[in-house]
Amino acid sequence: MKPVNNYDKIAKFYDDVIGRSFESTHFIKDLINEYNSNVSDILELGCGTGSVLEVLAYDFNVTGIDQSSEMLKIAEKKFPRHGTNWAELYRQSIDDFKLDKKFDAVICVYDTINHLTRFSQWKKLFRKVREHLKPSGVFVFDINTISKLDNLSFISSFVNKFKNNYLIMDVKKIRKNVYNWELKVFENIKDDNFKLYSENIEEASFPIKEIKEELRKDFVIKKTITEDSKRVSGSSDRIYFVCKKRN
Question: What is 147-204's CATH topology?
Fold first, then answer.
């Protein structure tokens, strides 16, 4: 199975560099509960290191899928089998997954869907989500907009220091609607000695109108909103879609 994007090389740094915001996870939880107050089972597409599931597991039965085996290894450590909270984790593609279970809610957050660089893949993901949702199930996902990715591609590389290590990110547009994130992590081994880890991660985004038209084939769009609860506009960086399955 060839991954769409592979985070294996930098998986061990992911939580330190990217991290997960408890506030963002609770924002996602509130969006789910607003449109389905009887949620028991949640599936996360592109669960990565399991940080979102780790929070949701206090209130729900959680399942996650991801394509990176190294990210899933980290996630597994957050859910010890003897622990109170548990997660079912699978290595599958987010646009071509198959589980023998249906869910009250499916989430795909932190611009995970942007890692699918063809809109045909987005369409396939929407169909798969519908297949795995129970009646009246809720689908919540977010996107990096074209506006955000364009803006990032115009600025210089940016550097983030974490612990004694460094991350350098450089975003460049490589073709219509598709952008390459060049990630370089310099791990401090000892004193001034560093080891380099690098990944190239592609992201794509598409016009909001096009996304909505496709969603309406299988879902009722209940809300589009930014994380700071502002109205969506052409300059919005990240947009959340809250949808309910058409029955």
Answer: N-terminal domain of TfIIb (2.20.25)
CATH 2.20.25.110 residue ranges in the chain?
A: 147-204
Q: What is the pLDDT along the chain (247 residues), one digit of tens a residue?
A: 344 457 888 888 888 887 666 778 889 999 999 999 899 999 999 999 999 999 999 899 999 999 999 999 999 998 876 556 789 999 999 999 999 999 999 999 999 999 999 999 999 999 999 999 999 899 999 999 999 999 999 998 989 999 899 999 999 999 999 999 999 999 999 888 999 999 999 999 999 999 999 999 999 999 999 988 788 887 899 999 999 998 8
Give one DSSP letter per residue of 101-162, joined into a string.
--EEEEEE-TT-GGG--SHHHHHHHHHHHHHHEEEEEEEEEEEE-HHHHHHHHHSPPEEEEE
Q: What are phi and psi of 101, to 5 degrees?
A: -165, 150
CA dihedral 224, 227, 233, 239 (to 10 degrees): -60
Report the SS3 class of residue 244: strand
Is the entire prediction scored with pTM above 0.90? yes
For residue 124, the number of C-alpha atoms closer than 13 Å in the C-beta half-sphere is 12
CATH classification (class only), 8-144+207-245 = alpha beta
